[in-house]
Amino acid sequence: MGEVNFMQEEDIRLETTRARFANVVKRHAQLTERLSRDSDKMIFERLQKEFEAARASQTQEINLDGEQWNDGLLATIREQVHMEADRKATSGDANNMPTSHFEEKITYTIGNKVICCLEGTRIGILYETSFAGEPCELYHCVLESKSFLEKMTVLEHTIPFFLPIREVENDLLSSNAMRFIDHIGELLQAYVDRREQVMMFLLFFLDEMICYYPKSVVLLLGDFCFLKNLFAPPFQVRLIKELYGNQIGELYHSLPYHMIEFVLDDSDCKVTISLRYPDLVSVLPTRVKVLAWPLHQFRKNHTSSAVLSRKENGAMGSQPIPARLSYAEDALRTMSLPEAYAEIVLNLPQALQQISQLRSPS
To answer: In degrees rounded to 5, what are phi and psi of residue 135?
Structure first.
């Protein structure tokens, strides 16, 4: 009877914690909505049109490899921007000026970055993110300096507010502008990668699906989701959905997706999974904890030892002890989230059986 009361108290405490956490998540979502105003969309649309116009008016587009993208080239771009701005300022009417080498408009493409000269003394960087070979969002960053000799500053951007662009600007832009441009691209691509891993992971068990990025990867066949050439063969996806399709719950994540937690409700246990990424440019977590909490089958094997433990140590001895699933933690550290999830659920029955045997009275 004491064990039952203790478990009920534990359940109440868990429900209270869950309710508080849910309230925090709700307030977090409201804050996110308030911070994503129409003005941000207007800035995106305006900058996107300006970038498209700059690329349409270019006289040359140069694709650069890693070695060609260097501080010297960035200095050349800055110099060209200021010389062109000075020329237009002193010409009176730039449209009547004869064509010269100053009017050559060059766009540079480096990996997922497109760098172009905008009106005035501004340099625009367009970041093209992707996932599994499919294009995702575009992000903009506009740099400006009053003169060639003065440091550049971030004039405006469309980068998500929860990514630390101002901190990176203070740390890098004045001392290493090239590294600043590259690091912002790394932050954006890693954020999209982590987010899309979660989205693909969700496809394993959602019954009613909304095709999210990458759209061309998802095929809906009957009641099952098959992933085309990605993460798992179709028969595995079908098996996973049949076994664990409706048993995922309580998915929480931070806005940059560098902290992720979710629960897998098995018939014999509840598996809690916690992921922490070392930084915002990482796509694989380093701090991983996967715990299997006993429910029915485990409790039967645990009851006899719990009664003895309660007699010796009091009621606290009846608290169920979770088992750590090391194979699952290894998978999450080395695989993408959808791959790791497939590995976890396909091997979960065997892992639970082994734990149950180890905990059975000898």
So the answer is: -65, 145
Q: Is 252 helix (H, G, I), strand (E, B) or coil?
A: strand
Structure tokens at 276: 């922490």
Looking at residue 169, the DSSP 8-state letter turns out to be I
Contact in structure between 263 and 249 (CB atoms under 8 Å): yes
Q: Are 232 and 338 in contact (CB under 8 A)?
A: yes
What's the pTM? 0.75
Helix axes 326-334, 337-359, angle to 10 degrees: 170
CB of 189 within 8 A of CB of 257? no
Per-residue tens of pLDDT for the chain, all 362 residues: 555 555 566 667 767 777 776 777 677 666 666 555 556 788 999 999 999 999 898 888 999 987 899 999 999 999 888 888 888 888 765 454 444 444 678 899 999 999 999 988 999 999 999 998 999 999 999 999 888 888 999 999 999 999 999 999 999 999 999 999 999 999 999 999 999 998 887 766 554 333 333 333 333 323 233 333 334 444 444 554 555 544 676 788 999 999 999 888 766 788 999 999 999 999 999 999 999 987 654 444 444 444 444 444 444 445 678 899 999 999 999 999 988 988 888 898 899 888 888 877 65
Q: Which two tokens stand for residue 333?
A: 């550290």
